[in-house]
Amino acid sequence: MEFDLARLKKRPSFPFETIAVAIAFSPRLEGLLGEASRLAKSFNAHLVLMHIGERTRTKEERLNTLIEKLKIDESHIRIIWTEGQTVDTLLQLCKLHVVDLLIVGALRKENMLKFYLGSLARNISRKAKCSVLLLTNPDPAGSRYKKIVVDGVENPKTIHTVNTAIYLAEHLKSKEITVASEVHMPTLAMTMAEESTAPEASKLKKELQEEEASKMNEMVESCRIHRDIEICQKMIKGKPGYAIRNYASNKKADLLVINSPDLKLGILDRIFTHDIEYILEDLPCNLLIVHSRI
Amino acid sequence: MAKLSHSDLIVFLVAISTMLIVSRVVAELGKRLKLPIVMGELLVGIALGPTVLGQLSPDFFNWLFPFDTNPNISIALDGIFSLSVVMLLFVAGLEVQLPIVLRQGKTAIATGFMSMIIPFFTGYAVAWFFPEWFNIAPDGNGRFLFALFLGTALSISALPVIARILMDMNLFKTNIGMIIIASAMFNDLVGWLFFSLILSLSGQNTNHMNLGYTILYIVGFGLFMLTIGRIVLNRVLPWVQTKLSWPGGVLAMCLGLCLLCAAFTESINIHAILGAFIAGIAIGDSVHLREQAREIIHQFVTNFFAPLFFVSIGLKVNFIENFDWLMVTVVMVLAYFGKVLGASFGARLGGMNRRQSLAIGFGLNARGAMEIILGTLALNAGLISKPVFVALVIMALVTSITAGPMMRRFLD
Q: Which residues of B touch A187 (CB under 8 A)?
C-alpha cells in the first residue's frame, strides 16, 4: 500500500471528509452502519466500509441488505474487503484512503484478560493515526450528541481537540459542550504535610486551581466559538483520565472527546493505568479520540 | 511478659514528648530561615544526644534516654523507632506513582536511569578501589557490600524535598518539573528495591538466603503487590471508604496493610522497609484513595513518626567525635559529581537543552530525609561506620539546601 503522505501530513483534525467504518459483522453492525451513515450525511463526507476478513456471499448479502434497509446512498460509499492482521491492516487502509474519522463499535467494558491483552477496538484507539470514534451502543437511527464533554488537559493538542468538538457539535446540533480540566498534583499531600500551615495549604491549593482555571479559560477563549453552542468550563480533581471518565459518566454525557495519546502505549500502561487507559478500561459513553496530526 | 515499671513509663513518655515538642519548635524556627524541617529535627537530636546534652549534663541525658542502663526503655524506644522507619517508607511509597514515570516517557526514563547508573558506579568504584578512605577492610565481603551501599546511597533522590522546591519555584506542573518528579520516583523505586537486597545480604538477618532467591523474592513480592495486589486494593478500597467509618476505617486498613506487608518481607529475611514501601506504592497508586485520606496519613507520619526517627539519630551518634573531613569531602564530591553529571546527561539524552539538563541534575541532587533513613538503616545493619553515616547526613543536608538555588541559577 502506498500512502499519499503529503495529504496526510499536518492535515487538520476536521472537517471530516472521509469517514470509515470498521465492520466485523457482529450483531451491532446495523447500529454501526446507521450511525456512520448519519454522521457521513451530517458532515457531507464519503463513507468507506472496511472489512478485514474473508469475503463471503453471506457477508455480502447481509451488508447489501443493511445498506438498502438503512437507505444509504450507494454512490457515496466504498466497500473494501481485504484480509490480514486486523488492526494493522485497518490502520493502513485508513492512511491509504486519508480517513479523517474511523468509527468502531466497542463494548463499554472488556473482561480483565481481554483488556490487558488488548481488544480490537482498544488497540485501534491506541494506535490510530486518525481520529477514532468508539460507539458503545450504536443505534440504527443514529445517537444523539446533546451533551459533549471535552478533556481540557494542558497540552498543545487540546486546542485542536476542542475545535474539533465544536465542529462536531455544530453539525450534530449539540446543545452543550463542557471543557473539563483535571487538577492533579501528585506529592502535594506529602509536601503540604511537612512545612505548611493550614492557611498556607489552602492558599496554595486555591492558587493552583486558579492558575489551572486561567489557563483553561485562555485556551477556550482562543477556540473558534459558535454562538449557538454553550461552552462551559469545569475544573475537576483527580487523576488524569480517571477524573474525566467519572465526570462524563456522572454528567451522563453522550460523547467524551479526548486527545490522541502522546506516547506509544503498551501493556505496562494498562497495568499501571494512566490517562486514556482509564477511559478505555471502562468507557463512560461514546468516545471520540481526536488525532490532531500536529 | 516484661513490662515498663511506673517510673520507666514516666521516663519513656517524657522522652517521647521532649523529642516531639522540642523538634517542632526548632523546626518551625528553621522554617523561617528556609531550612529543611529534617535539619531542625537532626539538630534537636544532636542537642539532646551525647554530642551536646551528654557532654553538658551526662546524668540528665542518661535519665532521659537510658539506652545503656535501662533495657526496657531502650527496647520500647527501639520499637517506636523501628515503627517510625516503616511508616516513613510507607509514605515515601505512597507518592511513587509509576504511571507518572510512564507518562513522561523517554526523557524521564533516560534521566531516571542515568541519574542512578552514573552515581552508582562512581560510588561503587571509589569505595572498591579506595576502601581506606572509608576505614573499610580491603578484603572480605564487607568491602563489596559497602561499595554496593555507597553506590546506592549516591543514586537515590529525595522526592519530598524536590517536590517542595518545584512548588516554590512554580515549576511543578511544567514539563521540566514533571520530568524531575518522575525521575525522582524512578530513583526511589529502584534505589529502595536495591537497598533491600543489600540489607538482606548484609548478614543482619540470621538465615541467609542465596542471592538468586533474595532477588526472586524481592521481584516476586514487588510484582505481586503492584499487579494483583493493586487490583484487589482497587476493589476493596471503595468498599472500605463507603462502608466503614470515615476516615478511621481507611486509615486502619492502609496502616494495617502496610504493617502486614512489612512483617511479611521481614519474615522472608528481606527488611521490613521493603514491604512498607511496596504497600505504599500499591495503596498510593489507587484512584480510590481519597486525597483527604492521603493527607491524614502524611500528616500523622510526618508530624509524629518522622521527628521521633530523625531526633533519635542524634541521640545515638556523636556527630563531633565521628566527623571526618576527608570522608565528608569525598562523599560530597561524589554526590555532586555523580548525580549532577548522570541526571544532566540523561536529560540531554531525553532531549532537554544544556541549562535545563543542569537544572534537572541539581534538582535531583537533593537527597534529604531519604538519604538519612537509608544511612540509619545501613548503620544499624553494620554496613557502614559512624563517620560514614555522619558524612552521608551532612551530604544529605547540603545537597537539599543547595538544590533550589542551583536550579534557579540555571533556569532564571
A: 95, 159-160, 163, 181
User: ipTM of the assembly?
Assistant: 0.80
For cell 500536529, name the residue: A294
pTM: 0.86
CA B42 – CA B38 distance, rounded (Å): 6
Judging by DSSP bridges, how do beta strands A46-52 and A147-151 pair with one another? unpaired
- Give the angle subtended at the CA of A78 by the CAs of A74 and A79, to the nearest 5°: 110
Helices B272-284/B248-267 angle, 10° precision: 140
User: What element of type H or E holds A170?
Assistant: helix A158-172
Q: What is the mean pLDDT of residues B294-320?
A: 90
pLDDT tens profile B371-409: 999 999 999 888 999 999 999 999 999 999 899 899 988
Residue B34's CB is within 10 A of a number of other CB atoms, namely: 10
- Say if CB A235 and CB A213 are below 8 A apart: yes
Which residue ranges in chain A fall short of pLDDT 50?
Answer: none
Residue at grid coordinates 506487608: B261
**CA dist B195 to B155, B189, B264, B333, Å?**
11, 10, 17, 22
Strand residue runs (E) in B278-319: none
Residues on chain A bordering chain B, Cβ-to-Cβ distance under 8 angstroms: 112, 154, 185-195, 204, 208, 211, 237-239, 242, 262-263, 268-269, 271-275, 278
Residue found under cell 548522570: B342
Q: Which residues contact A289 (CB under 8 A, 6 or more apart)?
A: A125, A128, A131, A132, A133, A134, A258, A259, A260, A276
Of B164, B287, B303, Cβ closest to residue A239: B287
CA distance A190 to chain B (A): 6
Give the contacts of A288 (CB within 8 A, at least 6 positions apart): A131, A132, A133, A134, A164, A165, A168, A255, A256, A257, A258
Give the list of residues 6+ apart from residue A93 with CB closer than 8 angstroms, or none.
A1, A20, A48, A50, A80, A82, A99
Got the DSSP string for A236-290? EESSTTHHHHHHHHHTT-SEEEEEPPSS---HHHHHTT-THHHHHHS--SEEEEE
C-alpha cell at B369: 530525609
Name the residue with cell 553529571: B341
Q: Are A259 and A292 in contact (CB under 8 A)?
A: yes
